[in-house]
Amino acid sequence: MTTHKGFDPQDFRAALGTFTTGVTIITTRAADGEPIGITANSFNSVSLNPPLVLWSLAKNARSREAFANAKHWNVHVLSAAQEALSGRFARQGEDKFSGLELDEGISKAPLLNGCTARFQCRTAFSYDGGDHIIFVGEVLAYDRSELPPLVFQSGQYALAARKPREEVRLGSTPPPECSYTEDLLGYLLGRAHYQMLHALRQLLSTQALDERSFFILSVLSIRDGLSLQEINGFISYTGMLADETSMSALESQRLVAIEQDEERTRYVLTADGREASLRQIALAKAVEEDVAAKLGTGDTMALKLLLKRLIASSDPGMPDLWSPR
Amino acid sequence: MTTHKGFDPQDFRAALGTFTTGVTIITTRAADGEPIGITANSFNSVSLNPPLVLWSLAKNARSREAFANAKHWNVHVLSAAQEALSGRFARQGEDKFSGLELDEGISKAPLLNGCTARFQCRTAFSYDGGDHIIFVGEVLAYDRSELPPLVFQSGQYALAARKPREEVRLGSTPPPECSYTEDLLGYLLGRAHYQMLHALRQLLSTQALDERSFFILSVLSIRDGLSLQEINGFISYTGMLADETSMSALESQRLVAIEQDEERTRYVLTADGREASLRQIALAKAVEEDVAAKLGTGDTMALKLLLKRLIASSDPGMPDLWSPR
Q1: Is A190 in contact with B219 (CB distance < 8 Å)?
Q2: A 271-310 → B contacts, CB under 8 A
Q3: Do A151 and B164 touch (CB under 8 A)?
Q4: What does the domain layout of chain B look like in residue ranges?
C-alpha cells in the first residue's frame, strides 16, 4: 500500500490506468472560430434526468481557454477503427482537423463522424478538480452507430471481448480428478478450428479434394509459380507436406499445371484451379460472416487480434506468404 | 440524431453505455458502523497533483446519507474474477459483506481484497450532478495487483483484448487483387491451432503416435470404456475417425486394452496409456502457460472466452464429453 507522501506520479498513473475506459474526442470552437479538439478518457455519464455527462481537462491545457469560454462542446465516443484519430487528437500542434469531414450539429462545435456515439452538450457546470477542471455538460442531442467502440486499458488500446450473461460452458464440469478440461487452450483452438473447417470440408468433398490439396491451392492462389520445396515452406506448419504424387493428382484434376524450365519444376494454378480456390475462399468468408453475426463485430475483431498475437508469439519462422518478389 | 425533447431514457442509457468502463465497488462505513458498499462504473481519475478521483452516486440511493456523511471511502477496481462480487454489490437488500474478509485500511471504510487496484480516499469535494452527486476524493493511499481487470460495455461484462503499440502483422500487406489475406478468421484459427500443435507433434513422434491416436487417448483419458462408435462420436469433429486397425495399433503399443463382453467391444486405457496421455496434457498445459506469459493473463482469458463463444455458436451437436454417466 503506497500512502500519500510516497506517491510516485508514474506508479500512481499506472494504478489509475487499470480502470478501463473508452476513448473520446471532445471538440469545441474557440471565440475566433478555430476548431479545437482533444482526446480524453476521463469522460463519464452522470445523470439521466437532466441528462448530464462529465469529463475533465488539465488546467494547463492549451485548449483550456477555449473550453472555459465555450458554451457548447461535443463528445465523440471513438470506434475501434478510430485509433489513429485518437492519437492525432492526443498530440499537440498538429492541424488536427485537417482532411476531416464534419457533420452539421446543433452548435458550431465540430462534429466528427465514424464514431460509436456522439453527445452534443452545453456546459452545465464547471468544477474545481485539483490540477484539472471538471466540465459537466447537459446533453442536448446524441446519436450512436453499431460500430464497436475503442477501449483503453493500462496505457494500451484494446477491444472488448464481451461475456454473455450466462457463463459459456461447452460441457459439464469435469470431476476434480480429471486433468483434461474444456478450459485447455489447445483443446479450444483445435475444436474451434475443426468446427470452422466443417463447411469447408463439405465443399472440398464436392471438389474431390483433401485438406492438403486445399492448402496447396491456397498457397498457389497467393503466390503462383512455386517449386515443391517452396510450397512446402508455406504449408509445413500444418503438418502436411506436398509431394510429387499430390501435385500430379492436382494436375490430373486440371487444377494445377507444371512449368518445367532448365533449372526446376514450378507449379502454377490453372483457370480451373483458381476458380476452385476462389470458391473455397468465398466459403471461408461466408463462414466468417456467420461467426461475426453471432459473436458481434467487435468481439470478432478482438478474436482475430488475439489469434494474431498468439501466432506472432509462437511463429516458428514461417516465410512471408504475401511478400512481394 | 435524437434531440433533447425526444430522449428515451433506455435509448439514452444505451448510447452512454457504449463508453467502456471498468467496474468498481465503493465502500464506506455509516455513522452507526454499518459497512456500506455499491457497485459503480462512474469512477474516473481527475487530478495527479493533488491526487483526486471522482465517481457519482444517485441522489435517491439508499447509501446516499452514509456517503454524504462519511469522510472516507475506498474505491476497488474489480478484477476479472470478481464479476459475482460486482453483481452482489449492485443489488439491494443483501448482506453484501457477508463472508468477505476485509483488509486493514487507513480508515474504517471496508477494504476488500482480490482487486486489480484500490484507492483509499477522503472526500475533497462533492458537487451537484443533476440526479446524482459527484464525489471527488483525495487519494490517501493506493495499491494494485497484477490481476486483469473486469470490463463493462453496453450492459455486459467483458475482458480486454489489448492491442500492442505496433500493429500485429503476420506478413506483408497483400496486393489489392489478392482475395486471400491474413485477416481471414479461418486462416488465423488454423495457423494458431497448428502452431500450438507443433510441440505436441514432437512429443507424439517420440511416443510413436499420430494425431488420431492422440485424440483417441485423450477421449479415453476423460471417459474410459468406450465402444468404437462412442469414441468416434467424440473425435469425428476433427475429421479423423478411429477404426479397428487404429485401435489394434494402440493395443499392440500396450496403451489401450480391449474389454469384450457379450454385447460389445469396449476400449480402456492401460496404465501406460494413461501415462502417455498425462504427458500430452502436461505438455499442452506447458504450451498454454508459455502463451499466457506472452499474451498476458487477461488477454489469454479473453481468447478462451471468445473461442468458447465461437465453439458454442458453431457446435454441430457434439456429445458432452464430461457429462456424468
Answers
A1: no
A2: 277-278, 281, 284-285, 287-288, 290-291, 294-295, 299-300, 302-310
A3: no
A4: 17-158, 185-313
**Which three three-digit cell numbers place residue B65?**
446519507
Exposure string of A120-135, with b = 16+ CB inside 10 Å and e = fewer, is bbbbbbbbbbbbbbbb
Is residue A116 over pLDDT 80?
yes
Helix (H) or strand (E) holding B66: helix B64-69
Q: Which overall architecture, per CATH, does domain A15-158 show?
A: Roll (2.30)
Minimal Cα–Cα distance from B248 to chain A, Å? 24
In this predicted model, what pLDDT tens digit does every residue of A227-263 receive, in sequence order? 999 999 999 999 999 999 999 999 999 999 999 888 8
SS3 A146: coil
A18 contacts B22 by C-beta, under 8 angstroms? yes
Query: Which residue in A46, A109, A108 sits closest to A76, CA to CA?
Result: A109
* pLDDT tens string A258-296: 998 888 899 999 999 999 999 999 999 999 999 999 999
pLDDT at residue B299 is higher than 60 = yes
- From CA A309, how far away is CA A33, in angstroms rounded? 44
pLDDT at A5: 61
**Cβ proximity of B214 and B273 under 8 Å:** no
With cut-offs at 50, 70 and 90, classify the pLDDT of residue B291: very high
Nearest to A313 among B163, B285, B295 (CB): B295
Task: Give the type of residue at A170.
Answer: L
Task: Name every residue whose Cβ is closer than 8 Å to that of residue B10 and which is 6 or more positions away in sequence.
Answer: none
The architecture of the domain spanning B185-313 is: Orthogonal Bundle (1.10)
Question: Cα-atom radius of gyration of chain B, to the nearest Å?
Answer: 27
What the block records as the C-alpha cell of A177 is 480428478
Report the C-alpha gap between B7 and B130 in whole angstroms.
16
DSSP A161-207: EEPPSS---SSPPPPTT----TT-HHHHHHHHHHHHHHHHHHHHHHT
Pick the CATH number of B17-158 from 2.30.110.10, 3.10.450.50, 3.40.1350.10, 3.40.50.10090: 2.30.110.10
- Enumerate residues 6+ apart whose C-beta is below 8 A from A202: none
Task: For residue A92, give the nearest of A25, A131, A42, A38 by alpha carbon.
Answer: A38
CA distance B152 to B86: 11
Is residue A32 within a helix (H) or strand (E), and if so which, with residue range?
Answer: none
A257-283 CB burial, b ≥16 within 10 A, e <16: eeeeeeeeebbebbeebbebbeebbeb
Searching chain A, which residue's CA lies closest to the CA of residue B323?
A172
Task: Please give the ipTM for the structure prediction.
Answer: 0.93
A170 contact residues in B (CB cutoff 8 A): 308, 311-312, 315
